[in-house]
């Protein structure tokens, strides 16, 4: 693919060709179960907050008390929540960063990254660039009370557009992480100023 991104920053510019890759070419499905009861932390995906403790998010535990049939997700792995909302019309993909491990319902599609930069992938899934691929596999009328009917095999066939060089993926991922942190800092300062008035 001939799409290029050009960016100049204090460290110099970069221009690298981007390519399309199937999710299944850069990631593997995680289907490990919490059979040994390794974790008692039920997780859910919030479109705004990412993977969070379900008990805090819902003020109670929605998951079964016995989490042995749930997927066991480890820090750094990703999950796709097929539930739709106003903020995420095609669901949300988030990376586990807050906890070492946790349990997710088998309704989620979980995966680990084999190639590529995780920070870039986090940034990519914050955009709407991946929605087209989901839209193409979510058949007309496939919504079931806000839950998209998407098979894992189809999810892994969706395509991502990413820089061909991992170094560039890393720089882009880091750039957006810093930008998010800067925005958060300015919002906090602004709210602090409002509190003082």
TrEMBL record:
Keyword S-adenosyl-L-methionine attached: no
Keywords: DNA-binding, Endonuclease, Hydrolase, Nuclease, Restriction system
InterPro entries: Restrct_endonuc_typeI_TRD_sf, Type-I_RS_S_subunit
Keyword Hydrolase (UniProt): yes
Protein name: Restriction endonuclease subunit S
Alphabetized GO MF terms: DNA binding; endonuclease activity
Organism: Adlercreutzia caecimuris
GO BP term (any one): DNA restriction-modification system
């Amino acid at each position: 693919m001939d799409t290029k991104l050009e960016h100049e920053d204090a460290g110099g510019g970069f221009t690298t060709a981007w390519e399309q890759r199937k999710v299944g070419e850069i990631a593997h499905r995680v289907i490990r179960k919490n059979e040994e009861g390794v974790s008692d932390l039920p997780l859910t995906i919030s479109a705004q907050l990412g993977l969070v403790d379900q008990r805090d998010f819902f003020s109670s535990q929605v998951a079964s008390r016995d989490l042995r049939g749930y997927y066991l997700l480890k820090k750094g792995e990703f999950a796709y929540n097929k539930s739709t909302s106003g903020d995420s019309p095609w669901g949300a993909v988030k990376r586990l960063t807050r906890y070492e491990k946790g349990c997710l319902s088998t309704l989620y599609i979980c995966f680990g990254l084999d190639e590529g930069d995780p920070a870039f992938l986090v940034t990519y899934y914050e955009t709407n660039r991946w929605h087209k691929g989901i839209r193409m596999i979510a058949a007309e009328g496939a919504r079931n009370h806000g839950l998209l009917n998407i098979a894992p095999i189809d999810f892994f066939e969706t395509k991502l557009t990413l820089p061909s060089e991992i170094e560039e993926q890393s720089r882009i991922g880091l750039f957006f992480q810093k930008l998010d942190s800067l925005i958060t800092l300015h919002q906090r300062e602004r709210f602090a100023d409002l509190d003082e008035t």
